[in-house]
Amino acid sequence: MASLYIKTKLFLEDNSKTWDDTKVSLQNNSDGNGDFIASWSYDIAQPTAEQLASYETAGNTAETLANVLAQREIEYPSLKEFAEAYCEKEIGGDSTKWNAYKTAYNKVRTDNPKE
Fold first, then answer.
1. Is a pLDDT exceeding 90 seen at residue 84?
2. What is the average per-residue pLDDT within 18-41?
3. What structural domains does the chain harbor?
4. Angle at Cα 70 formed by Cα 84 and Cα 25, nearest 5°?
């Protein structure tokens, strides 16, 4: 289930607005009723529950993509490894590290597809 933050953010973007913590705040009172919009000061009407519900699928997609990208960031070889492999290939002519780097990089992409 997409978070209220993501659905609200998507609603704002569809209305040519950007998220601004000074114009909207979300809250959860831990009373079992879940998250809700506590304050809203945009120059457009606050979205209804039905409007926000219409962003469920897009919100799930956005959250999945964010999770994939975060996982990729963790798993990608470091910039140091990239620099070492690239320099060794360019300066020393040995492509062994470069090929290993490309293989590791592409494995992360394959293991964490965007779709």
1. yes
2. 96
3. 1-73 (3.30.56), 76-115 (no CATH)
4. 140
Closest to 42 in 3D by CA, of 18, 59, 10: 18
- Does 115 score more than 80 pLDDT? no
Give the DSSP H/E element, type plus range, for residue 73.
helix 56-75
- Ramachandran sector of residue 24 (left: φ over 0; alpha: ψ -120 to 50; beta: rest): beta
If you search the block for the tokens 């979205």, which residue do you land on? Answer: 47
| DSSP per residue, 31-61 | SSS-EEEEEE-SSSPPPPHHHHHTTHHHHHH
- DSSP reduced 3-state for 63: helix
Whole-prediction pTM? 0.73
